Task: inverse folding
């Protein structure tokens, strides 16, 4: 099966339309604060100034609330962070949160979220413009509870209900998340100061799943950083209890994770994994990674890089973030 044919097959399994075709672009608009006089549909062209930098990579930057208006008429809540002018490189990233509170975890600094560790601010400090779209089932996009129900706990998701709802309609929830990530990429490319040829996707855990699948499904995405997800389906999702939101019916035996990652070639791919990750075993990660280099080398491209941390299931974004910045510069 050729790369193009496999990509279209992946898009079909995810419930995405065929690549190409004329569709109105997604739009990014600022959500005005109560003190703001700007209309709700004012296009975003600039964000607030970042706070003074410190030696800490997790020093806070200004966070703008935004909305991504998709071609299908959906509105995706999002956060936008922009680097101070002397740090801006023109590169940008759509940053996807893993399971938890959603995009609030990506920008938390006091204290930082234990998994993401001030992730959005790390990317901004590295010169990236960062757009964080809320994925279905998390934060502001949890499925409404029935009247009289106990409210959601702060980090609780609606993945179980949403996964069933989407599967009963013939398409996986993961496909809807990938579609939303692609809409965010489309919107970010139109932002002033962003080089549309240097827009990457990044995420860890469930956000890593979305990032890997989005970059594989859309060859226009410039690069991908996938943390604490890349492994093999057999060794992780098919052997260890995971959330049903990960289910993509029919993906096996046609495509393992390495086959999906290979669709990103020859573009930059950075992988991060924890030596002690209990739900994505490192031995299977290394075995899958060993299959990738020949694909890039056959295209005279720099092979992917695997960064293995000494920790468990956590997104450090240290060497992996530096590697992404180097590859997309």
Result:
């Amino acid at each position: 099966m050729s790369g193009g044919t496999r990509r279209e097959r992946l898009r079909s399994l995810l419930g995405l339309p065929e690549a190409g075709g004329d569709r109105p672009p997604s739009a990014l608009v600022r959500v005005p604060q109560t003190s703001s006089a700007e209309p709700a549909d004012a296009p975003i062209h600039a964000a607030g100034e970042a706070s003074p930098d410190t030696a800490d990579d997790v020093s806070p930057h200004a966070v703008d609330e935004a909305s991504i208006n998709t071609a299908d008429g959906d509105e995706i809540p999002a956060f936008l962070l922009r680097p101070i002018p002397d740090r801006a490189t023109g590169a940008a990233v759509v940053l996807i949160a893993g399971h938890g509170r959603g995009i609030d975890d990506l920008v938390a600094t006091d204290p930082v979220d234990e998994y993401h560790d001030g992730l959005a601010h790390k990317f901004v400090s590295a010169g990236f413009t960062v757009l964080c779209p809320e994925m279905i089932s998390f934060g502001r996009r949890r499925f409404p509870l029935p009247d009289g129900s106990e409210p959601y706990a702060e980090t609780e998701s609606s993945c179980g209900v949403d996964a069933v709802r989407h599967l009963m309609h013939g398409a996986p929830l993961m496909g809807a998340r990938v579609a939303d990530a692609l809409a965010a990429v489309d919107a970010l490319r139109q932002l002033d100061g962003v080089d549309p040829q240097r827009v990457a996707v990044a995420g860890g855990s469930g956000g890593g799943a979305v990032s890997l699948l989005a970059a594989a499904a859309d060859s226009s995405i410039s690069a991908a950083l996938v943390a604490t997800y890349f492994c093999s389906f057999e060794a992780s999702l098919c052997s260890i209890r995971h959330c049903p939101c990960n289910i993509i019916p029919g993906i096996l035996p046609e495509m393992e994770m390495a086959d999906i990652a290979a669709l990103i070639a020859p573009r930059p791919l950075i992988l991060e994994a924890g030596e002690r990750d209990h739900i994505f075993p490192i031995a299977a990660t290394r075995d899958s990674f060993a299959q990738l280099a020949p694909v890039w080398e056959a295209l005279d491209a720099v092979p992917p890089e695997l960064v293995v941390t000494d920790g468990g299931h956590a997104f450090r974004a240290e060497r992996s973030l530096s590697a992404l910045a180097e590859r997309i510069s």
User: Anything to note?
Assistant: The first strand starts at residue 27 and ends at 30. Strands lie at 27-30, 64-69, 75-81, 92-96, 129-133, 199-204, 224-227, 269-274, 305-309. Confidence is low (pLDDT under 50) at residues 34-57. The two ends are 32 Å apart (CA to CA).
